[in-house]
Amino acid sequence: MSLRLMKSSSNGSSFSPERRLRLLLTVLLLTVVMSTLGYRLIEGGTLLDALYMSVITIATVGFKEVYQLSNAGKVFTILVITFSVVTLAYTVGTLGQLLIEGELREILGRRKMEKRIKEMKDHFIIVGYGRVGQMVFSEFCRQDVPSVIIENDPQMLPALHKNCPLAIEGSAIEDEVLLAAGIQNARGLVSTIPNESDSVYIALTARQLNPKLYVIARADSKAMEKKLLRAGADRVVIPHEIGGKRLALACLRPNVVDFMTMESPGGKLGLSIEEIEVPAGSPVAGQSLKHSDFRAKYGVTVVGIKKQNGDLELDPSGDIIVETGDILVLIGKSDALENLGSLSKT
């Protein structure tokens, strides 16, 4: 089930079935209120008596009146019945249309999904469900990373509905679409679309709606990469450049490529690369890499350390001190990396 924004009804009306149903229910409620006030003013009696008369008149159930109606009350009753029959008939017809077309199920599913997205925090927004977007979503699912997808291409919608429980149909250049995806509570946004102008605008808009958002964008050229960085993207990836380098390595250094594929999902050795921030109170904080002995204690190898000042130490020596807030780049078996929660224990 996906969330559709700015969708008109199938019959061409400017009101969607959902809005028409809401309007009809509002009219029915107002009819009950107005008829109750009318009976109270015309016939007197208690408020409960007037409400009772309103309900049995609007529902046309034919129960006995609580008091003898005056001529003015009878005329008022005729008007209420006439208006109510027309309104109820139209309401029932609209409900039937919603049930037949599956709109009611879609409305309920949309409400449920809207609630789920509003409750999400620290999730990622994926813009585009093409080949690149599908790979990003697949990797997020593999690592249990919550995500919401935005897609505007009608050709991609069938696959979107089938594979993605949280998806929004619309253009990410619209503020309301990004807000519907929960951008204000999101951790990051990944733009996978190839359109240069839209990508730049999305980066600008996303940065404005959430200044703390981590924005990653796809580029198809170096010129586009520069524009996206100026627009506010934190990282820019050029897919064909990465693919070209991998092809060249497969020809020139096939063993290097074999090692790289070990890190991929389903690799023969099940290796993964992970990064983890050293929390306050961690047993490794304040110790050297040599004394921390990551290999023996945790079954992983530290291949890089990013210090708090931004310096990146590749292949760090054993004498370097691990400090709170450092980001460790680790390589090891997937199960060993998943068990690194012990780093936060004192």
Structural features, described:
With 346 residues, the protein is an alpha/beta fold. It has 3 domains: 2-107, Helix Hairpins; 121-241, NAD(P)-binding Rossmann-like Domain (Rossmann fold, 3-Layer(aba) Sandwich), CATH 3.40.50; 270-344, Alpha-Beta Plaits. 50% of the residues lie in helices and 15% in strands. The protein contains 14 helices and 11 strands. It has helices at residues 17-43, 47-58, 71-101, 103-119, 131-142, 157-163, 175-180, 196-209, 222-231, 239-252, 254-262, 289-292, 294-298, 334-338; strands at residues 2-4, 124-127, 147-151, 167-169, 188-191, 214-218, 235-237, 271-277, 300-306, 312-314, 327-333. The strands form 2 sheets. It has a 7-stranded parallel beta sheet with strand order 1-4-3-2-5-6-7, sandwiched between helices. It has a 4-stranded antiparallel beta sheet with strand order 8-11-9-10. β5 (188-191), α8 and β6 form a beta-alpha-beta unit. α1 (17-43) crosses α2 (47-58), α8 packs parallel to α9 (222-231) and α10 crosses α11. It is elongated and about 100 Å long. Mean pLDDT is 82; it is low at 6-13.
Number of strands: 11
Strand order of the largest sheet: 1-4-3-2-5-6-7
The average pLDDT value, as a whole number, equals 82
What distance lies between the first and last C-alpha atoms, to the nearest angstrom?
A: 44 Å
From the 3D structure, determine the CATH topology of the largest domain: Rossmann fold
Overall SS class? alpha/beta
Over the alpha carbons, how many angstroms does the gyration radius reach? 31 Å
The top level CATH class name of the largest domain: Alpha Beta
Q: What's the architecture of the largest domain, going by CATH?
A: 3-Layer(aba) Sandwich
**Net shape:** elongated
Contiguous helical run count: 14
Low-confidence stretches: 6-13
* CATH superfamily caption of the largest domain: NAD(P)-binding Rossmann-like Domain
Largest sheet: number of strands, sense, barrel closure: 7 strands, parallel
| Helix-residue proportion | 40-55%
